[in-house]
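Can't attach files on this board, so I'm pasting raw text. These are the components:
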Amino acid sequence: MQYSQMSTEELQELKKKISEQYKESKSKGLNLNMARGKPATAQLDVSMDMLDVVNSSSDMMAEDGTDCRNYGLLDGLPEAKKLMADMIDTTPEHVIVYGNSSLSVMYDQISRGYSQGYLGNPAWCKLDKVKFLCPVPGYDRHFAITEIFGIEMINIPMTQDGPDMDLVEQYVQNDACVKGIWCVPKYSNPQGYTYSDETVKRFANLKPAAKDFRIFWDNAYAIHHLYEDRQDKILDILSECEKAGNADIVFEFASTSKVCFAGGGIAALAASKNNLEDIKKNLTVQTIGYDKINQLRHVRYFKDLNGLNAHMMKQAALIRPKFEATIKVLEEELSGLGIGSWDTPRGGYFISFDAMEGCAKAIVAKCKEAGVILTNAGATFPYGKDVKDSNIRIAPSFPSIEEMLEAAKIFAICVKLVSIEKILETR
Amino acid sequence: MQYSQMSTEELQELKKKISEQYKESKSKGLNLNMARGKPATAQLDVSMDMLDVVNSSSDMMAEDGTDCRNYGLLDGLPEAKKLMADMIDTTPEHVIVYGNSSLSVMYDQISRGYSQGYLGNPAWCKLDKVKFLCPVPGYDRHFAITEIFGIEMINIPMTQDGPDMDLVEQYVQNDACVKGIWCVPKYSNPQGYTYSDETVKRFANLKPAAKDFRIFWDNAYAIHHLYEDRQDKILDILSECEKAGNADIVFEFASTSKVCFAGGGIAALAASKNNLEDIKKNLTVQTIGYDKINQLRHVRYFKDLNGLNAHMMKQAALIRPKFEATIKVLEEELSGLGIGSWDTPRGGYFISFDAMEGCAKAIVAKCKEAGVILTNAGATFPYGKDVKDSNIRIAPSFPSIEEMLEAAKIFAICVKLVSIEKILETR
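---
Top answer:
Structure tokens for the assembled complex are below.
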């Protein structure tokens, strides 16, 4: 029975019972962290052999004869470009290979827009107002970057097919202050949605009011499937944009941080020829080059897309049961109660949970009190402000299955308790 | 005899003879590159064992229990902070360990000043004018960074004790638009000068007109000695600034790019507590963290400062003969002719040569024609403008000794030829 249809007496009775369960959970003194999309130790173990493929007896020459130990090749090893291009379904000539963090590549691109401007357009710091569109719920670290540069963020609701494209088109095509949009197009953070072909095509066919509008296409989970037989596919945004005569409209980002070692991977940016030239003009001032030895390590270990995909299936085997266990608890404990809804992703790193309005913060706080750390409520929205106070991001990767089960049960208890209180409050 | 004291006939005679030598050199079709401070292959070979110390059977935990394979520790492994601190004679609590490039750390700091501002001061992009002092000759990549941010650069002449401090004090203490100065305090690029204790103390005791003035102390060659028995020492700028009540006035930079692998090293920034907190507020938006596996690799391989120093003596054994060979050719071929002067550094990566005024570009061009590539004339000055057209940077590290000898001889021939032409021109 839905909680809202229960009598006040029934709810008070239930509250007593669940409070007991909560008290019991709390007494266990747990310390479980589901806050960040952090790989588990077992996932890191999977990649250990990668540390052997480049050693003191290795040939350190890249395919083009470059000594990977020396300066040179600002934009990356040709074979690393190929690997990263394959990973995101584009071609090597669109790719620059960077250091260990795609987040810092995104920060760099925003920073470049702010201080230099794109392709001869004015630097954003010289403008009165710069706005970004932010599909919500979304990735808190994206929003933190735009916030620190003083860029005004506008919420765009997400659907299962991607951002609300009517709204996106309306803003982008009418407001020249709108300079960009943050997207996680595949297995989105936190909902696990994958943009439909129509959404990708509408992005590619945008007619922006601002010449320097860019889509920030963070393809963070390009190969991060949970299943071998049920995998989302997404159109290649770069070629769609080219087809639409809009080649310069997009920057695509990816990394191997959640493929091999978090923080020990390599990152890539993919873009049009014009954009790459523009970026490299700046990049050559910024650095002599990135760590080519780690690029070589990647290429020698993964070899090609098949190698990457096979590796990701090992990761899936470790992470999938945690997703399934979490979803199972949510289903068993919360289905049909009308106090929350959630998604069942086929990839990525998160489960998105929508509580009753006005309950998210209280649920996260209650979980914390019982030793279960979740991402801060509101974090999935710009400025940390979820006006509905409803969305909670669950990151099941780091704890063990047993811990995750325990944590999910406590989470369900907290959702119940807070929801009952909320319903009683409004009677 | 000095060329300028020779008769026109003598000079014309000499020119004929040297032109023949030049022709002969040219006919060899050489291709020698002395343009950049690039380690030689043999120098890279010295560090190959470093690639074995972190392997698939390694304990991947840092001293504090951090799994180096996962996210975490924004500012670096504690033991990597210690290693980098020891390298530049400071203490770990002053240090952030970054990725592979100190140049990009410097770019970042300029970029942060430009777009965010330091310690609550206005972002430079909001000011009408920002100026930087540039000791000359200096490092072209420093100047390129300030140039790309539209910062006006002011030349400060170098002396054997460091920049002309009277002039530095005059600018810094009277002009609030002066926000920084580029310094390579030890084995300076390109002259190989090391700042005297008095110079360091005068830097530490500056009373800037601008609250957000910073010394950009690029300690690039801290342990890059050419000799075991003759090593320059420099005062620790951070503690001198603290003593002077000026703790926040300096950012210090260093890296291991020319210790182990160029582009495969780690970089560090050292600064006051206030500055570090200010930086980390921004850095946490910019990245989740740097490559801790490479930090671990450094610590396990070098162990401590003794390990670093012992390693650098192996490097010195390889690079010193090239310096000595070059200097020997310069002495044999050019001493007493009054057509050029040079320094004999005890460390670093460069030899600085001052030709007669108005001759540097022509010498570099003539060398190029004969297959010897030097750093562009003017590159050691802001905007690439050496008003005297005199300074040439020689980078002897990359070629073999035999190649370096050959290249130095051709260089001497070109200096002679161009100088004779210059003298004749003015008669």
